[in-house]
## 1
Amino acid sequence: MAMEPTRDGFGEGIIEVGKLYKNVVVLSADLSSSTRANWFKEKYPERFFCFGVAEQDMICAAAGFALSGKIPFACTFGVFASGRAWDQVRISVSSMDLNINVIGTHGGVSVGEDGLTHQALEEISLMRCLPNIAVIVPVDVIEAKKATIAAVKYPHPTYIRLGRNPVPIITKEKDKFKIGKANLLKKGKDVTIIACGSMVCESLRACEFLKSKGIYAEVINLHTIEPIDKKTILNSVKKTNAVVTVEEHTIKGGMGGAVAELLGENYPILMKRIGMKNFGESGSPVELLKKYGLTYANIADAALDLVKRK
Amino acid sequence: MLDKSKKLDVGKLETIAKEIRRDILLMLEQAGSGHTGGSLSIVEILIVLYYCKMKHNPKNPKWQKRDKFILSKGHGCPALYAVLANLGYFPQEDLLTLRKLGSGLQGHPRYGLPGIETSSGSLGQGLSIACGMALAARMDNMKNKIYCLMGDGELDEGQIWEAAMTAAHYNLSNLCGIIDYNKYQIDGKVCDVMNIKSIPDVWRSFGWNVEEVDGHNIKALFEVFNKVDNEKKKPSLIIAHTIKGKGVSFIEKDNRWHGVAPRKNELERALKELDLE
């Protein structure tokens, strides 16, 4: 299966929107080649602005651009965009509800060798608790490009979480992508697996494995965590009555947390959240995903356990 | 529309300053809370900007070519609200809704109220927003100017210095920072809380054109705002030496008034001092 990092999808998408919309600007807190912001810089240097290693300044400057009729994309690593500049995002992005797009790359433990300081594990929680911001975790390079393009027309702020390493391309150009509308990838009846980002592909593998055991899992790509697609999730779990959530992110308040909130109030059922429970560390992406229980085997085990307990 | 071609009528502006101080005190008394000292210290700065310097249109607050003002020290908003109401951005009677449920006149400025360019009040953010606006204005070949008023205590925020670097790096001569140098912050004297040895030297070393002025002298303020327009390469910073609580003897330099509103009897004493007809 062909593999590319989702950050490349942003790079392709931002060039395209740069061509289509003259009011799109890109802001970068250093790291321009890591975030692929430099792809835009090469094409449209007059609309590219660097801020040095100063994320707080960059986020508020993005607000200044948005208040002046521009559509800014502010790019840095997810840890810094969400954590270091959180109050700036809270006041100058979320509370003013402007069309500002925050690009956080290097999401998840699969960042690898750089270790815990650079592995963003809390952005979904930190961003989705703020009003107005759409929180998007594209599954592959194609979806990341679509999300970038969609963000321009979305009349609210977005936070787009991207990954560093190549991940399998599982969607097609013609597949529909709409912010806030989850994609049902596999139909099943025994258990629902809801995943985002790199964990969607692992979930599809788990689905295949489960089939060999006679278990039919429904797999949902929940690329938009906020606003959450209540309808697609509820329709699925009403059929299956069991749900596993999978994310390369803390299970506290993240995608699994969002699903738990929704189901807790609307349709409480058996549930297992798979994700990070602590900080990561240095290591190869494959080693880390295995060590922290983020593989298809972990997902399949959780699903089997739920089906047994039903 | 107000523009800088208007002749400076110092006497008239001094009367307006008294009216604005009266309105600030009335609003704060009615609200029962708010920042008295740091509102009274910025009155002349706002008056010179809004009545003689900036190009803006109260009837069309979103007019494309307007100069923009950001109150980064958002807690001083009673002064800004009083000026905006006086100019007709919203009805004068709205002033008495300050800090009340459902009012557009929030405890700190909130985007959406006519004349308010951005939410502010979480200290340190305004200058970065101003940099974004100045960069956007330059992209669009606009001739307007972006003004950003900061507190002296606000300079403790690291983000101010990030923005100071950005403005100088991009040679944002269409940006003018102003410091309300009233020498106090909530915990006490600025020099005791976090002493910046020399504010002008620090900003100069960051690459800014720096001027100092008596922040209560209308003529001097007008002149310095015009002077910095001649700077075409660097961002400018005007350090306005002010008195916290200016205009009311028992509030001046008494830092207990940082975040306290006058009570009815104090309001009456203060209004007598302002000696308005």
## 2
Amino acid sequence: MKINVIDRAGQVLDLDCENGDRLMDVLAELDLVEATCGGECSCATCQVYVDPDWLNRLPPKDELELELLDELLNTRETSRLACQIHLSDELDGIPITVAPAE
Amino acid sequence: MSASTRVVVVGGGQAAAQLIGSLRGHGFGGQITLFSDEQMLPYHRPPLSKKFLLGELSQDKLLIRKPAYYEGHGVDVRLGCPVLGVDAAARQLTVAEHPNIDYDVLVLATGGRARRLPLVPQGMSGVHALRTYTDALALRDRLHAGARVVLIGGGYIGLEVAASLRTLGCEVTVLEMQSRVLERSAAPAIAQRLVEEHAHHGSRVHCGIGVSRILGEHAFEGVLTSDGQTIEADVLVVGIGMQANTSLAEQAGLACADGILVDRSGRTSDPSIYAIGDVACWRDRDGQGSGRLESVDNAIFSANVAAAAIAGVAPPDAAAPWFWSDQYHNKLQMVGLAPAQASWLQRRSEDGARLSCFCIEDERLRAAQCLNAAGDFIVAKRLIASGQRIDPAALTNPSIALRDLCTTASE
């Protein structure tokens, strides 16, 4: 499967990934997000904007993700933390924009 | 740096993985070779004491980058391949069976090793430390519900392992020589809350107690404590910190103190050699203090700084170092370094579930430690970075949103 990513420099990338990958790992592998905490929902450096048409295919945010997003800058209604998104075949082709670093 | 530049990285931990990713991310087209004495590609260490020990995470999920990344990005990875010597004058390395490996830039990411307890006889079975994947696997294989475990050292590793082992049904006793756990690293109120949590889950945490003898001949059978208690146990876990692996650097003639001394770009006393991660000892971390920092954040930052210098691009901005620890369902996030005897201001939620401690210096926020208060942590990072003046009364008043104290940041 693939995901469609716009990175912080505005480049459009089609990235290969596998069912079960975490979105954060796919982005961090190419240094597109810092993801310092390795996906423990601690650092909040993996904010992305998800295409609004795809938002409802994602599982809801838990309390911790909500709290972090509440305090981050540059958030939008479509913001999610990439460490909380597990990729599956239903998400093949999902368009993602990496949010700017704080 | 030109496309013919040969970068050799020694050590295969988080810092090494980040340096490689960062170099290729900057478009560095030269040769990159990684030598690691471990058998596994660079992996996340923090889960070893938590999700991995609990059996919730498989080996492949620990990898920082998949094998295909290294292949696809022209990185020559040599696992199980310790570097035996460095000839800095000739810019050559000696690796088993390969006497002369040339480099233009050498990056030492040799990390550290778990500090041993001299009292423990060499080769005694049932004695464990936790630093590497192999360590974690060996400990995990040893555990069963009801196993009696003594943990020496009430630091983050000790407490995280204690929480995991208790969750697995082990009987856990933690012995800490200092008068409290996390004495050098956490605010007293935070440490107190964590100790209560461990007690609540049925672990014993004894502070101010040392070990005077290890019981057992070939297999570990227990400890005799400095106050005369005999604690019988099946497994001993020693979590008393790490020692930096500086021998290669020392042999190469690099200036070392507690680690390998580096400047703000991660350069050692030899301009062709950098040191990053746990082993690097900052002479001056760009206004953020000096010394070694054992953390993922520092591994990543130091790697990015060195990668920028090697690739010839602008360095990343320095920020206050940060750390985290997860114990049971408690999330502790810390930012900034507080002096040893800092006085801490407290901000508690009404139900007591959230606790943040703040260290103020010259009317500015210097450090924050947030327990189950992730939002406070995000704002505290911003408050520290801005260097703005802070009203202590507002900081400790939970009815004022912390974000309302930010005067400089805006969307």
## 3
Amino acid sequence: MIEVQGLSKRFGTVQVLTDINAVFAKGQVNQIIGKSGSGKSVLAKCIVGLHKPEEGKVLYEGRSFHDMEAEDMRGIRQEIGMLFQGSALFDSMSVLENVMFPLKMFSAMARSEMEDRAHVCLKRVNILDKDALYPAELSGGMQKRVGIARAIAMNPKYLFCDEPNSGLDPQTSIVIDELIKELTEEFNTTTIVITHDMNSVMETGENIIFIHKGRMWWKGGREELLHSDNKELNEFIFASALMRQVKKAMIKNG
Amino acid sequence: MSIILHIGRYFMLLRDTLSRPERVSLYWKRTVEEMDLLGVKSLGIVALLSVFMGAVITIQTSTNIDSAWIPSYVVGFTTRQSTILEFSPTIISLILAGKVGSNIAAEIGSMRVKEQIDALDIMGVNSAGYLILPKIVASVLMNPFLVMISMFLSIFGGWLAGVGTGIISTEAFIEGIQYDFDPFTVIYALIKTVVFAFIITTVSAYQGYYTSGGTREVGISSTRAVVYSDVVILIANYALTQLLLI
């Protein structure tokens, strides 16, 4: 479980996040949603320790992350798997080397064991016979899946996904969403997905927080989301034509 | 950002870079790769420049000495001194700052804007150490070899041009390069080379590591890496010359 308490972050004079309080439960797909520029990625980066907040705490199983010694912080980070918006695969490494990289750095496995583990992860995300290819030779969807395989290589306790569907077609997006949901249940991870894709929210969102202008505007489940009377949240949810159709259908059906 | 902040951040990056590696074997493998990329692959340009610069130094020295009172071996002597004291350690380092420095800044800068450095940090890898330390070790080990090869080829180029154009005999040239030779000049050159190698890799890596934005900013970082490395090399050259030769 990850808990955020009174977190505030600013860059220079620009206040990006103000007094964020949230609990991200284990074994659930927790989602941080909001418009572009609302501060959701900054919140995620504060949670994983890439940014240090000016105020507030991030607690991993009750331990304050930013107050830890560097070694302990590294220990927590080795339990984090992260899928980046642009996949962030290492260009100079093949698919297999990318997935094996965290194992090479932190495990005491023999090379054959590392290869076996990497193949298990790649098989889990349905990437077969692509070991020798380089990231530039893969499609966007495949890069995301290799990114997920790398993220789960170390059996993470915490899985972060930053805009996992950006740049993907709707069908591939659903595949990625389902994969994230399945992996969360399978490995019982605390999963946090940062997204503005409403389809993804409706597919996988269990515990959702809505960030607006750097503040936590709303929190709840996906069922409550559609029935909320929060003006800003409704503007965000029903911005697309598809969601407006959903709203009309909901009103029509009472 | 003020220069004080840059200097402070540079030394903080150095502290992270020089901290204990997570996996020595993995770092060593990367160091060997970097030795090939930064050292062996620079051999061609270093050799070409050295031969031609040696040739030019010889011809220019010869054409500027037209007094009968100055013996002809002075041409060889001047070629040797210019090569060992300045050309090979300093000019070659400035050239390497252009070739190697821009490469380092562009590579690390691209990794930064593509979030690959964030990925390393989140995995718990010391990204500064993993990316920069092998480059420093590789350059510090390889550049002295490059400079020694440059010294030899520059003097060889001088002999080739001198004898080829008939401005000096082989005997006079060899007498000149042996005349009043002080082995400390080679040590002085190699000390400078090691310091310049450290400057090139760390200044360029700093520019790349703190790149923010997109491909345009990677280009800007790459240019800055070359310019700042050159400026710092020139300042260090002056300081080391005063410290070691006076």
## 4
Amino acid sequence: MNELIQKATILLESNSVQVVIGYGKGSANRTRAIFITQAADCEKLIFDSRCIQNLAVYLTKQEIKKLGKPAIVAPIPVLRSIVQLAAENQIAENDLVVLGVTPESELVEFESFAAIETFLSTHRIEIEGKYQKTIEMIKSMPVSERFAYWVKELEPCFKCYACRSACPLCYCTRCTVENNQPQWISVASHPLGNLEWHVMRAMHLAGRCTDCEACYNACPMGIPIHLLTKSMLQDVAENFGTYGPSLDKLNALSSFKPDDKESFIR
Amino acid sequence: MSKIGVFICHCGENISSTVDVVRVAEETGKLEGVEFSTDYKYMCSDPGQTIIKQTIKEKGLTGVVVAACSPRMHEPTFRKACQEAGLNPYMCEMSNLREHCSWVHDKSEATTQKAIDLVRTLVEKVKLNKPLYPIKVPVTKTALVLGGGIAGIQASLDIANAGHKVILVEKDPSIGGHMSQLSETFPTLDCSQCILTPRMVEVAQHPNITLWTYAELEKLEGFIGNFKATIRKKAKSIDENICNGCGHCTTKCPTKKIPSEFNTGLGTRTAIYVPFPQAVPNKPVIDKDNCTYYQKGKCKICEKLCPTGAIRFDQQDELVELEVGAVVIATGFNVMQPSGFPEYGYGKYKDVITGLQFERLASASGPTLGEIRRPSDGKIPEKIVFVACAGSRDPAKGIPYCSKICCMYTAKHAMLYQHKVHGGKSYIFYMDIRAAGKNYEEFVRRAIVDDEVNYIRGRVSKVYEENGKLIVKGVDTLLNAKPVEIEADMVVLASAAVANPGAEELAQKMHVSYDSYNFFSEAHPKLKPVETNTAGIFLAGACQAPKDIPETVSQASGAASKVIILFSQNELSREPVVAVVNRSAPPVYSTCVGCFMCASACPYQAIGEELITDRKGNVIKRVAKVNPGLCQGCGTCVAFCRSKSIDIDGYSNEQMYSEVMALLNND
């Protein structure tokens, strides 16, 4: 991606941005996030199919914000997160340069967040068939069996909160789970504590999750927690309209439309 | 360290008959932090309150739990008692041992145990209570009255005469409502228009009343004393300031065959029209749906003829925002179209009409100038049949309630017919005669005795036409259920009074509750008959339930007096139970991350933003801020906030949690 390196170099040399958030070489055959502040280091930037981490997570981190105005390498999942973060007032248009990368690995620049939204309208979130099947299988279970399924699936969780750290939308200064007056969510990693944590996490992402799978990719135990958010996406779509981030669409759970189904109370 | 006093009330025997109150006092007295506990027969009585006050002073209590009835009635009583003893009133909580325990359970050990549990949860909560202070909010001393019928007129005049500004909004081109359509009124037979029109003029001329006809409520935000209303002033297509009401346009308009709403379809009107000669304001509007120019782009005859040049075809609807302190809903009722009753033949036979249509026939300003004539051929009916309860009291047709006014107006109709058609015969099929009201029974008697109206107790099974006559088949249940058949010339159906078609939508706009028939609900059926459940919004007239004129006028004056009481204060005290966004020490300042989803979730638009700045004025953080004047303490934002950065004063997360844990940790 010479084009990407060139563009990043220009941005840093002209001092248009102070840091470029991108992908670089990691340990073994992996990639990792790198934060380039010197134009000369731009050569370290790479982009290929291994680059699956959602870099948007860094846009709200205080340590990164301190480095100055960022440019961010943004494949589709990152673009979706950017739109959602903008809709939630977490990033401003002028404080960020988006270096979009299409699925064909072409560099694309955006004038505005609205332009990103327009671009995304041709790249909608789709839930893969294999996940659809699993979700349907889980949903068809009797309640007790489904409960047992999740207790078992979540059993390996030891509350490292990597899922939270990897999620671009988990940007709260203080997470509910760290709120100990009162301690609504148990911090212990016993079945109840694990269930409470993951159910809460999924609920907090309802109507917001952009299906980047960063949580699942980050989980050291490989727990399929992305099934919860994928299923939630479908539920939100079914009850409140289409899914996917939008700048002006009000959040599904915090807004009311007269044509909402509200089948859960009616 | 908490020093809490627990006061258990017997409520006469209401609580003590199923709950062992002595044991509740004894057990709760042992709880950690409880300094004193006792029971008494009537805690709300003067000696009861004295016990509380004295204990606060003697024991230096820091919190009080009164275990008695629902807080709805007596929370203010006990909070006041605490305040008089020097304790912040919000350090007093009520545990509802009556509705939540003694009334719903039999006498048993479990009932007493539940009572102990209920008190224990509140003891835990009170430990975390903190002193709160009432919020003062200003009162905008302008009232909004919706609906310009007799209810709206009366309420507006009363409020205006007390010296306050009123904005009266009417959806039709003229005020007057249904009362302006009536001929004579029971039980005195005075002419409806004669008593109403002076009031209408008074409204138009009153310096304190601003009258907006052809206008509707678009949106209502805010709260008691501080509502913000948006009114849609529909385009009348005339400039009211220039129009002098000469009426030239209405005589020359080529579209003349539009059924007149005022004459209930028995007469016609033009596309540019004044609904009736005594209309207020007496200036025309253009009915865009029927105007040739608006529909076909050609005509403009009225514009050419208008001597003052007042026609404005390009006029648009105008949205006006108003600040008002109180709202009176006086949107009235509607008459059910009895087409759902094929057996009566309404809609099929021209001479089967509704009671309201009969009013127009009998009215001097009506299409027949007050002569009772058949709509079909203009003949004077020699025999007329009135059917009471056409729709009302008929659960099968969805209206189980009594429309209240029909018995009286049907008697009046028959009487008017007898007065106007000498030698005519009138019959009334009825279920019961409900004539409860001053001079009402005497009025019905007069119809039966003096005017020889034939009352037949029974229902009509079928009306059909034969040889130009309407055959009415019914039954006389007082004559051994003998079938009755009458060859009538005209049939008048006393069709049910129903809510206005837009009532449900209006109620939702204003956040007032309504019943299953879409009539607006009062806050209490006996003691708060003109208030709604939303403070500052009052009801007048038939929008609440079917009502006659005297009752409507009384209620309108009642609603007006509530508004005047509200406006007699310069500011209102509000419960300080409002949401607050937290603050914490730097560098966090507040755990709020400013996603503002709470703002879209808030039903009262009470959440705005606040910039936290350093001493130099640099913005450090943008966070949500709750306007305590607008917040109603509903807690929607609290439930929605992911980072739990909002809490409700008096009902904090910590307090709720401690209550729950007190229940769960029950050994």
